[in-house]
Amino acid sequence: MDNSQQFCSHCGQKIQGTEKFCTNCGAALKPEATDNANNGNVDVNETVNKAKNFSSNYFAWFIKTLKQPSELVSNTHKYFGMVSFAIEGIITAWIMSIFSAPLVDAVNNGLSEYDSFAAMGGMSRNDYLNLSFITLLIFSLALTALRVTAGFLSRRIEGSKVSYLDYANDLAGITNITLVIELVILLFSLISSYPNAIIMILVSVNFLFANVGYVFSLIRDNSHLKFNRVYTVTISFVCLSIVTFIFSMLFMTIVFR
């Protein structure tokens, strides 16, 4: 006998699962509707469980990479690296928005004063500096994508068969320490919106780890080597620097409005 309980869709009365009609209002019960609702709840629970498993596995992977950044972690989800880079991009954009706010205000005040004098001579300008958080986030994520793409292409030139997501996991696993450093920088920047000696030291250390990790991601795999690694690493850095410079110049042309 089915002792499960359900509710009448008409009056909300609690009834036993074996009833075909509501004992309160007499409305006919629709088991299929109840089944659909239960199935919907199951789907939601499965989604929540998957999200919990993903987050717990990600943090376990993150801790392992902090302890042994030079070691590959087996059975890694293909999107763990992308998650790290996304978090890093958000933190970087947040830090940049804090530090750039005083500079933006100073520049815009200067432009405003210029406008007041230029207007007297029949000239004016309205290309004020605009550095919103979204703009900085797009810039940060784009630079990260360029770095990952440059490393991936370098590995493929060397003869490696690594996929883009696998290389992103590889690079993120080596450089996850920079995420921790950026969190510390963010905490200090929330205390003081102007860079101080501690913040500058942390930025330098973060830059060092990022570049060392990038180089190590290019030389870790010794299989399928077609070109000398000194040349591939050098070419990769040169190309990345050129593309980053060009992208930064293009970015600066759109921050004026």
> Which percent range describes the beta-strand content?
under 5%
Largest sheet features: 2 strands, antiparallel
Q: Indicate the overall shape.
A: extended
End-to-end C-alpha gap: 72 Å
**Structural class, from helix and strand content?**
mainly alpha
Uncertain spans: 117-126
Which value, in Å, is the CA radius of gyration? 28 Å
Number of strands: 2
Mean pLDDT, to the nearest integer, reads: 76
Note the run of SSEs as H and E: EEHHHHHHH
Order of strands side by side in the largest beta sheet? 1-2
Report the oligomer.
Answer: single chain
Describe the structure.
Keywords: Membrane, Transmembrane, Transmembrane helix. This is Zinc ribbon domain-containing protein. It comes from Apilactobacillus xinyiensis. The chain crosses the membrane at residues 79-104, 128-150, 171-191, 197-219, 231-256. The structure is a single chain. With 257 residues, the protein is mostly helical. It contains seven helices and two strands; from the N terminus they run ββααααααα. α2 (80-120) packs across α3 and α5 runs antiparallel to α6. The longest helix has 41 residues, at 80-120. The termini are far apart.
